[in-house]
C-alpha cells in the first residue's frame, strides 16, 4: 500500500488542480499535473495543438533511441513546444515506448488543452511545455509516495539508507548525456534490505543532477521518515527505495554497452 502527497509551490498549492492516483502495480500511474505554471490553455485545432501532436508523435515513434531519454521540440515561437520523455534506467526499449504511449494518451485525455503538463508512471515520465525545458533543473511540481510499513530500527535504517542514496547519487550524477541512473542495494539491520534507485534526466549537468538528487534525498525525512519504502519524484530527477527489489538487474552486457556512450 502506498500513500501519496504532492505539491507544486507550497504557497499556491490550494489553487492547483492536483490529480493523484494511488499506485500499487508495477507500471502504474503515480500522478500528473496540468498547467502547473499557469501558462494557460491552447485552442483546439490551433498551431500549438498541432505542434504538440507532432512533438508527442515524434517522441513516441522513435525506434532508434535505446537509452530511455527522448526529447523533441517543434514549431516557432510563440507556439513552439518542447517535450521530454524519460524511462526508468532499467526499463527496456519496448516497455519504455509502451509507457510513453500510455503517458501520451493519458495526458492528452486528462490535460486536454493545457500548454504545459507532466505525468509520472512507475516506469516513465512525460512532460511538455511552451518553455524551453532542456538542460534545466526543475524540482517542482513534485510527488511524494511512501510505504506504510515502518523500518524496525529507524536510526540504523536511516544511516544505511543515507549512505546508499549518497553513493547512488554520485554514480548517477557522473553518468553521460544519455543516462544518469544508478540502482543498488544494501543490508539494513535485522536482516532487512534496502533497494534504492536514483535518476536524473541526462540533459542535466553533473552538478545540477547531483543538486537535484541531494534535494530529493533531503525530502526523505519529511515524506518517508522511518518508512520501509518511499519516493520523491520531480521533473528533473527522482529517487525511490523499497525493502524489495523493484528494478531489473542490468545484464552485464547491457551495462557495458551503455558505458562508452558519448555525447551525441
Ligand atoms: C483551461 O482548460 C481547462 C480544462 O478544459 C479548464 O478547466 C480551465 O478553466 C481552462 N483555463 C482557462 C484559463 O481558460
Ligand atoms: C477541429 O478540426 C476537426 C477536423 O478538422 C473538426 O471536426 C473539429 O470540429 C474542429 N474543432 C474545433 C474546435 O474547431
Ligand atoms: C523527430 O525530431 C527530430 C529532431 O527534432 C528529427 O531529427 C527526427 O527525424 C524526428 N523524428 C520523427 C519520427 O519525426
Ligand atoms: C492510461 O494508462 C493506462 C495504464 O495505466 C493505459 O492502460 C491506458 O490505455 C492509458 N490511457 C490512454 C487514453 O492512453
Ligand atoms: C508560454 O505561454 C504563455 C501563455 O500564452 C506566454 O505568456 C509565455 O510567454 C509563453 N512562453 C514562451 C517561452 O513562449
Ligand atoms: C509506524 O510508526 C509510527 C510512529 O513511529 C506509528 O504511529 C505508526 O502506527 C506505525 N505504522 C505501522 C504500520 O506500524
Ligand atoms: C557507500 O560507499 C562507501 C565507499 O565506497 C562504502 O564504504 C559504503 O559501504 C557504501 N554504502 C552503502 C550503503 O552501500
Ligand atoms: C543485494 O541483492 C542481491 C539480490 O537481490 C542479494 O543477493 C545481495 O545479497 C544483496 N546485497 C546486500 C548487501 O543486501
Ligand atoms: C535533446 O537533448 C540533448 C542533450 O541531452 C541535446 O543535445 C539536444 O539538442 C536535445 N534535442 C532537442 C531536439 O532539443
UniProtKB/TrEMBL annotation:
Pfam families assigned: Stress-antifung
Ranges in a coiled coil: none
InterPro entries: GNK2 (IPR002902), GNK2_sf (IPR038408)
Span of domain Gnk2-homologous: 30-133, 139-246
Record CDD domains: Gnk2-like (cd23509)
The UniProt record lists the keyword Lipid biosynthesis: no
Extent of the signal sequence: 1-27
Keywords (A to Z) from UniProt: Repeat, Signal
Repeat among keywords: yes
Protein name stated in the entry: Gnk2-homologous domain-containing protein
Organism: Psophocarpus tetragonolobus
Upper classification of the organism: Eukaryota, Viridiplantae, Streptophyta, Embryophyta, Tracheophyta
